[in-house]
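Lab notebook, bench 4. We co-purified these components, and the gel suggests they stay together. Before we commit to crystallization screens, I want a quick structural picture of the whole thing.
Request: model the full complex, all chains together.
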Amino acid sequence: MAKNESLNRANKAKQDEFYTQLNDISRELAHYASHFRGAVVFCNCDDPETSNFWKYFELNFTFLGLKKLIATHYETDRPSYKLELLRDMNGDGKIDKLDIVKTPLKQNGDFRSPECVEILKEADIVVTNPPFSLFREYVAQLMEYGKKFLIIGSQNAVSYKEFFPLICANEVWQGYYAGDMAFTVPASYEPKETRYWVDENGQKWRSMGNVCWFTNLDIPKRHEELLLFRTYTPEAYPAYVNYPAIEVSKTADIPCDYDGEMGVPITFLDKYNPEQFKILGFSLTLAGLMSDFVEKGTYLPGGKRFYIAEQNGKYRYKRCYDRIVIKRKKG
Ligand SMILES: C[S@@+](CC[C@H](N)C(=O)[O-])C[C@H]1O[C@@H](n2cnc3c(N)ncnc32)[C@H](O)[C@@H]1O
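Here is the predicted assembly.
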């Protein structure tokens, strides 16, 4: 197999080529317009000739009052290029695609390449849907350079040991939209039984059910108070047997009168207001070892999940899903 072909295959095997739709981008970015005035925006995982992130900012350059738009294209194994939009280059009175400047890169446009890191340093806000397989590294780099960002990711990323502390420390939070999102994928992608279709133009699509936006741009949503209307009873909210907190299986059911620690689903983050709640940790790291389960061979030693004392078939305990541990702030 030729070297290029094998590299391309390896790249595709990571299944990173999910292209975001313009309407998903516009729906989210409509909430952030004030942040973009005078900003240098960098889309660093975007083929600017096809990316809808580039398209969105190109179309809204004047409306948002951007200072500069930059996008770099990634090639697995050869030098790439960048596109920039800065000012009315052709003097026709508007800033649009006729003013785009294309410049070759010496490197391949990898967001970690020194050339792209130099552009990153110049940027005020990074906006993109980064490769899922490099999410941890991608976020680590943004944090290292202290950048503002708005990116798409899987809600499951909160279980990453590198990422969750950023959520706890209120350095990253969820944006507006969370849930199902559909992406176009390359023709080379294999069909799948679920969450896959081909439209009338022969375009392949895939969808994901737990996608959200992560950002460190302040938004009104994270200051909205979640209205709580349930009251605590020990029967309705059983305590975990391997951690001192109660199980709240739905965010909407968080009791308004319980001051202790509570385990809530990951989707709580969509409603998280740091003035109302404090995030204490994640079940994956907090759950205590249950020797009882080790003996029966149904439990991973080391502590992974919370359990409640509820008969579950032949077992005396029921395992809960991943939980975020929170506490109400007094108020
Ligand atoms: C999930 S796709 C999203 C593409 C585009 N941002 C969008 O939303 O439509 C991630 C993109 O990152 C590119 N990519 C993969 N590895 C990369 C790297 N190391 N540096 C920069 N881009 C990379 C992939 O080729 C892919 O096009």
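Residues 16-20, 45-46, 51-53, 74, 109-111, 128-131, 134 surround S-adenosylmethionine (CB under 6 Å). Worth comparing against the SEC data before the next meeting. Residues 277 and 329 are 5 Å apart (CA to CA).
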